[in-house]
Every structure is written in structure tokens, then in C-alpha cells.
Amino acid sequence: MSKLTTLKPRLKAIDTRRIKPVYGEQRRISGSARVGLKRRIYARDGGHCCMCGRVVDLTDSELDHRIALQFGGDNSERNLWTLCTECHAGKSAREVATGQPDELALKHEVPEDNQTSGFVGL
After folding, report:
1. Burial of 24 (0-12, 13-18, 19+ CB in 10 A)
2. pLDDT at position 108, please?
3. Which candidate among 5, 68, 69, 103 keeps its CA 20 to 30 Å from the CA of 21?
4. Any bridge partners for residue 55, and if so which?
5. 47 — alpha (psi -120 to 50), left (phi > 0) or beta?
6. 122 close to 39: Cβ distance less than 8 angstroms
7. Do the domain assignments include residue 83?
8. What DSSP line would sit under 36-54, residue for residue?
9. Would you say 95 and 68 are in contact if contact means Cβ atoms under 8 Å apart?
10. Is 18 within the bounds of a domain?
């Protein structure tokens, strides 16, 4: 009786780890760079929420990405704006619910950088 030979496996084991897709920049700005950037954007926006127009205090406002990093947005000043806490919470909730950039936020433009507008006090 002849001996059976073992065949070499032709299939490779698949990697079952979930791969998180990378859409855009993933690094958030933090520390003193974020504080300075928030002040600059707040001054550019005239101390107003860019979605509802409400006057907001620097400490009670949110520095927000108009198009979130996870949806391909970046950290450029053209993608950052000041939002009140209510508009920020609503925008974030809509993005989580739909899994895509908030359509309402995309209807609003980021203000132009107007050097003559003056600085809004802290």
C-alpha cells in the first residue's frame, strides 16, 4: 500500500481585523495651537455662530470643522468655523445619524477672512 502525500495548502488565511477607512486628515489640532486657532477663527467670524448667527462668547463657543475630518475635511481655516453649542450638538447628531457630512451645515458658508473687521473682545 502506498503512502499518501500531504498537499501544501494553496489558500492563505484572511486577515479578519476591521480596517478603518481613512478619508482625510485624522490628526486634530490640540494644545496651545488649538487655543490660538480658536481665537483667530472666533475673531474672523465676528463672535457669531456661523449657522444661526447668534452672538457667542469665546469660552461658550465651539471650534468646528465644517466638513468633519472623518468625511475628508481638513484643518485649514477655510474648513473651520465658530458654532454655538446648540448648533454644534445638532450638526454632530445629524452626522452620526446619517454617516455623512451634515447637509444643513453645507448650506452655510465659512466667512471670508476680513482683516479690517477688527478683533472681538474675549
Report:
1. middle
2. 92
3. 103
4. 48
5. left
6. yes
7. yes
8. HHHHHHHHHTTTB-TTT--
9. yes
10. no
Following CA atoms 103, 106, 108, 114 in sequence, which dihedral angle do they give, to the nearest 10 degrees?
160
Domain containing 82 equals 48-111
Reference 109, options 71, 69, 78; nearest CA is 78
Q: Classify 91 as helix, strand or coil.
A: helix
Three-state DSSP at 98 gives: helix
Structural domain includes residue 117: no
DSSP alpha helix (H) spans, the chain: 31-44, 85-98, 103-106
The contacts of residue 83 (CB under 8 Å, 6+ apart) are: 49, 50, 51, 56, 61, 62, 64, 91
7 is a domain residue: no
Other residues' Cβ atoms within 10 Å of the Cβ of residue 41: 20
- Name the pTM for this structure: 0.70
Number of structural domains (the chain) is: 1
